[in-house]
Design goal:
mainly beta, seven-stranded antiparallel sheet, two-stranded antiparallel sheet, 0% helix
Length: 195
Amino acid sequence: MGGYTTNILYASDERGNPTAFDPLGNFISKVDFSQVSFNEQFSPLIGFDMTLKNSMSIRVEFKKGRNVSLSFANNQITEMGTNELVITTGYRFKDIKIGFVFSGMKRQVVSDLNLSVSFALKDNITTLRKIEENQKQVSSGMMNMLINVTADYQISQMVGLRYYYTHNLNKPYISTQYDNLNIETGITVRLMLTQ
């Protein structure tokens, strides 16, 4: 409940039954509720995560959520629903050798290369339902597609390299918004100063 207030026009008999009426002929309640809402989250609703003997990992998750609120101020129900499918796979290449020249000396590093590819499809939509007019309309929401690729390589105990690529596409459900595409890519150097 979003909160409530005591109704000063409320009146009752000795048994606690309401006796006051509003102009429409309805009983006046003891308290007024402004909003009632509930939230459901299944994260994940269905999912599995496994690692194979050849160092390949696969994870699949389906998430579902819903938030419904009833407003007594305007007699309107607002429903926000979310469905999300996430598929992630990874593979570890063992003992990859990389040679480089540092300060005039040739060095060779042997470490594992971890690759990860993730695909996520998320659908969220907000629907307004007007109770008295018996109307419903989509007020906001979008379909989101996310592709994420990462490659990790540990050069030493203190220095790690990561390559990342992120492809994010948003397709809104209402005509006042436009499709949106973001692409990010780069290399990250991580310094671990604590051991």
